[in-house]
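Database export, one record per block. Field names are fixed; values are copied verbatim from the stored entry.
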Amino acid sequence: MCTSITNADTPSGIDAWLMPQVWTRLSDIPVISLGEGGSWDDTHLFAPCVAYENGSFRLWYCGSTSSVQNRVFKLGLAESSDGIHFTKSPASPVFAFLDGKRSILTPAFLRHPDGSVCRQNGRLRLWFASTDFSDPESVHTLHETSSGDGVHWSPPSAPELEHVYAPTIMIEGDAYRMWYVDVSAEPWVVRHASSPDGRQWSVDEDPCIVIDQAWETKRLFYPTVRKTGDAYLMWYGSYWSGHPQMTALGFAVSDDGVTWRKHPDNPVFTPDPNHPWESHYTTSQTVLRMPDGSWHIWYATRKAPPHVNKYFAIGTAKWDGPAPATRIEWPQRTDDLRRQIAEIFTLPTQRVPLDAETHRTIDAATYTIEAVTFDSEPSSRVTALLYLPKERRGKLPAAIVACGHGGSKSCLYAQYAGQLYATLGFACLVPDTIGEEERHVDGKMGTRAHDLYQYNDEERLAFVQEKLKRSVLGKIVWDLMCGVDYLQSRPEINGDRIGVMGYSLGGASAGGLAVLDDRVRAAIICGWGFLPSLASHGKHCTRLPYAAFAETMDFGEMTALVAPHAATLFFSGDSDKIIDNVEGGAALVRQVREGIAHAKRILTEAGIDHTIESEFVAGADHWPLFLTPTGVAWMQRHLMPPTERLPIPPKTIKFGDWVDAQGQAIEKLYNTEARERGTEVVDVNAIYRTPKELACFPDRAKPAPEYTFAGWTDAVIKANAEETQE
C-alpha cells in the first residue's frame, strides 16, 4: 500500500526524489494535435507512448473519430528528431482491431528499468488495454502485440488479464513487472503484478496505490514507473479535488516497487491555464530520462468544457530532476558503490604474496617477451606474457590486455597487441584468462571453460551460487588486479602509468578493473559497456553480476566510478550483435551514451575532473579496437608525456589479412569483415608465435592444478566446506 510521508520519514536512498518537481513546458503549442476533419484521429487523441532509439523519437498514440459514446481508438505513429516537433506517419493508423468495435488503449512497451525500450529478438513488445465502448457489458482486457519496425504489428493476442487499464511494464533480470489501473470497481486503484514471461500474470492481493491524499478524488489512473539506482519512481494521475473536471499528476517513490511513498507536495504536474489546449487535463503520460539526466514527459490534454473531445492534444515538458550528488556526497557514494561491486564480484579481502617468477625469455628485434607466473590467491596462480621494449626512455608505461571469451595470451589479437604496444614503447602484460591455455586442465585454447558448459542452465546456476559461491567474472577481474600488483613490482615499469584494454569479456573485466582499481590511469573498453540490458542478456558469468548491479546502483553511477583516476574510452562498433543481439548494437550505443552523460553530470556537479568518452565505428560489429591507430593514440595520450611518444606507423593492415599471412585462421564466429577480420590495425610487421613458443612451461603435458580453472574451483569449494564445518 502507499503512504503519504514527509521527507523526515523517508529512507535516505529516496530522499532526493521527494524534493519539488519544477517542470518546464518545451512548446507553447501541442507536439501532436487532432487530425484534419474526416481523418481517423480528428476528434480524440491521447496515451502517448514514446520510444527514444538511435538518437530519435517515435511516439505512438491512440486516436479516434466519432462521438465520445461511439469512439473506437486505433494506434497512430509520429516521429521527431528532438522530441518536440513531430510529424505523423503516413502509415497511420498502424494498428487496430479488425472488428471495428474494440479500441486500442494505453499502449505500453516492454522497457528496461531505466525506461529504454527492450527489444527481444529485435522486436518491440507492446501491451495495451482494450474494450468495446459501445457495449455496456464489455470489460477492459490486457493484450499484446509485437513489431520489428513499429509499423507492422502482429495480430492482437487473446486477453491476458481482465479489468486492466494503462499498464506500464518493465523487465528486471528474468522477471516481468507490471503496474496497472484496476477498473473492476470504483474508485479505481493501481495494482502490481509479476510474470515469468509477460503473458501469465500473478496479481498482488493488495493494491499498491489508492486514493489517500487530499488532492485525489474519484479515480487514480495512468501509472508510469521507472527505476533509477535503488529507487522506483511513479507518476500517476487523479482527478484534482477542488478543481472540477480537471486532472493532474502525482508522484510516488518506492524501494521495492510494491510499497510506495507519495510526494508530500502532490500534485507535481498540473494543467496550464495559459494554454487553452491543456487547461483541464494532463494525464496518460510517458516519462523518460534523457542522456543528459533530465526527465521529459509527453502527456495528453483536454481543453475546457464542453468536452466534445475526450482528449484533445499531446504536450511535452522537462524536469532536471533532483539535485545531483554534492561535492561531499559523491565521494562517500563512490566508497559505498565500490564496496558493493567488490562484494558482488566476491573479491578476496586480502592479497597473497605474488611469488613471481620469470620462466623463459624470448628475444625479438625491438622487444623481449618474458613468460611469467604469479600468485593471485591461495591455490591459484596466473600464467602471463610480459612484452618489454628494448629501447627505453626512463621507466615504462604499461598496458594490460584483458582477453575475452576463449582468449588467452597466445590468441591472435593478444599476440598482436603485445607486439604492437611494445614496439611503441609500452610494457604490455597479457595474462591467460582462467580456464584457457596454461590455465585449462588440458592446456587447450578457446575452451571457454569458465562458462561451465558441462552443466545445463539450472545446474550451472546451482553450482556457481550454492557450491562455488564466487563470481567467475570477479575472479577474472581479481587476477587482473594482481597483474597490476605484478607490474608495480617490476623496477623498469612506472607504477603510476598503468592502463588496461580489452574487448568482449575482456571489455567486461577491463571495465571492472578500471572501476575498482584507482592505480589504473587509462582504459579502453571495446565491445562492452556498463549496460542495463546486460542484467537480462548474455552469459551467466556476466549476467549474474550485472543483474546484481542493476539492483543496487544506476549504471551511470558505475560509469562515473572510473573518474578521476582513469581516462576511459568506450570504443565499439555501432552494430555489435555479439553483445547486443536484441537491437543489433543500437542498445549498446544508446546505453553507453546515456551512462556517460549521466556520469558526466554527476562528476561535474561534484567538482571532479574526468575524461570519459565514447566512439562507435559505423558498420562495425565486434572488433578489438585497441589495435587501431585511434586506440594506440588514446593510450599514448593518457600514459605518456609528449616527449616519450613514438610515432605511430601510418600504415594499417586488416587483421584478417595479417592472420592469413601468418598461416593461421580466426575463429569462425569472428572471421567476418564486420568482426575481427575487418579490423584495421596498426601495421608493425608482427610475427605469429605458437602457444608452445610462448608457454611458461613448454614441456608440461598438462598444467598443475594451481594454474587451472578446475583447480581453483576445487580449492574454493574445499575452503567453503571447511568454513561451513567450522
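Remark 1: The longest strand covers residues 216-228.
Remark 2: The chain has two domains: 2-318, 329-725.
End of record.
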